[in-house]
Design goal:
Pfam families: Asn_synthase, GATase_7. With 437 residues, this protein is an alpha+beta fold. It has 16 helices and 16 strands. 30% of the residues are buried.
């Protein structure tokens, strides 16, 4: 991964270097800066494609635009063919985005396939264009002061280096976290710090700091009743093969996380088939009390991968927590993140890119909680008046009756909730915000 930073109307242009050093871990290979009277921009780079010539910022051939980029564009070679009239200086996906923006404007976003956050600066008009990928895989935060954009970064910790930033707790984010185990707001746990939402772009007038944010894509759920089970499974496999192949485009070694689950096992299998006789590296993490090492070996051995397995003890686990929390910037209610931290550390010793099965359980209903609608069907046929009566009676499992009365979105929120609203208000008081971050 890489990281980008920026200050708008900088009082001290050297501050961007402090901001960028704060995210050194995102890109140990290189750094780049640009400064003029209206902006100071920086980046840290982890080199994946065109290692020698992909240094950032990359400037357009006419000298008007420059780009800083964090991410990977998997269809950049196809897009490059559509930009044959542009004189490319590199073989990087970064320059393809820049050329596409010059030709198509913000419409380039709908053509990109990948994960990304990028900043394009129009040096003639002193305007910034920042965009975040369709699903928000890559992060981007911005700091506001009196409705003006002051700075932006891939991580909140960059803002802590700015003398004018005074970190204060945002109670609204705390309430959401205690209710839903995460904060769904554009606001963060820090007052005046916001996330650029997924599938959105932001234009900033660097002379004034005024900004406009727009959505460029909306996911559409389209039901196809013509597909049978055989056609559906074939389509899923075809899509996965295509996706894995595109994700393997890199000028550095690519590996795979491997657990005992079907998701990472399928991905590792597809990678090894694509690589053929060349062994891929796979990685598994386990704990003293819980390990999927045996299941992972049952997959890696037939595939012939170069497999590595690490075990994290309880003392090591808790000792790492401060560092993991530091990396996240905000609370994350997912203890498995600590395991991924150790797994990434081990993988980084031998590869720069890994594929994983993260998110597949959400797409394919891999968790038991997703069976709730099926378990609820046995009472869903009852008249509403009877369900209302059942919900008032004390009996084991009456929550099914209560949830059957709820709308779909309310049932989903209930699945994820920890504390109800009244308990959150009792747990967290405004006076607790005095313990500033």
């Amino acid at each position: 991964m890489c990281g980008i930073t920026g200050i708008v109307s900088p009082k001290n242009k050297a501050s961007v270097e402090e901001m960028t050093r704060a995210i050194l871990h995102r890109g140990p290979d290189d750094e780049g800066y640009f400064k003029d009277e209206h902006v100071a921009l920086g980046m840290r780079r982890l080199s994946i494609i065109d290692l020698a010539r992909g240094k950032q910022p990359i400037t357009s051939t006419d000298g008007r635009f420059l780009i800083f980029f964090n991410g990977e564009i998997y269809n950049y070679k196809e897009l490059k063919e559509d930009l044959g009239d542009y004189e490319f200086k590199t073989n990087s996906d970064t320059e393809v985005i820049l050329a596409g923006f010059i030709k198509w404007g913000e419409e380039v976003l709908s053509r990109l396939r990948g994960m990304f956050v990028f900043c394009i600066y129009d040096m003639k008009e002193s305007k910034l264009f920042l965009a975040r990928d369709f699903f928000g895989i890559k992060p981007l935060y911005y700091l506001k002061e009196r409705s003006k954009i002051v700075a932006f970064s891939s991580e909140i910790k960059s803002f802590l280096t700015l003398p004018e930033f005074k970190p204060e707790v945002n109670n609204a984010a705390v309430f959401n976290y205690l209710s839903f185990q995460y904060n769904p707001l554009e606001e963060t746990f820090f007052k005046n710090v916001f996330k650029l939402p997924s599938a959105h772009y932001m234009t900033i007038d660097a002379k004034t700091g005024t900004a406009e944010i727009k959505r460029y894509w909306q996911f559409q759920f389209k039901q196809n009743n013509t597909l049978n089970e055989k056609n559906t499974s074939e389509k899923i496999l075809e899509t996965m093969k295509d996706s894995v192949a595109h994700h393997m485009i890199a000028d550095v070694p690519v590996g795979s996380f491997l657990s005992g689950g079907i998701d990472s096992s399928i991905i590792a299998t597809l990678i090894q088939k694509i690589r053929g006789d060349k062994k891929i590296k796979t990685f598994t993490v386990g704990f003293d009390s819980l390990s999927e090492g045996r299941e992972a070996r049952e997959t890696s051995e037939p595939l012939g991968t170069d497999h590595r397995e690490i075990t994290v003890g309880s003392e090591e686990y808790f000792k790492s927590l401060p560092k993991v929390v530091w990396h996240f910037d905000e609370p994350v209610a997912d203890p498995s993140a600590v395991g991924l931290y150790f797994l990434a550390q081990e993988a980084a010793k031998s590869v720069k890119v890994v594929l994983s099965g993260e998110g597949s359980d959400e797409l394919f209903g891999g968790y038991n909680i997703y069976l709730e609608p099926f378990a609820r069907r046995w009472i869903s046929w009852l008249p509403r008046v009877i369900l209302q009566a059942l919900a008032k009676m004390p009996f084991r499992g009456k929550n099914y009756a209560e949830r059957a009365l709820s709308k779909l979105e309310d049932r989903y929120i209930g699945n994820a909730s920890v504390f109800p609203e009244n308990e959150v208000k009792r747990l967290w008081k405004d006076r607790m915000s005095r313990f500033n971050l």
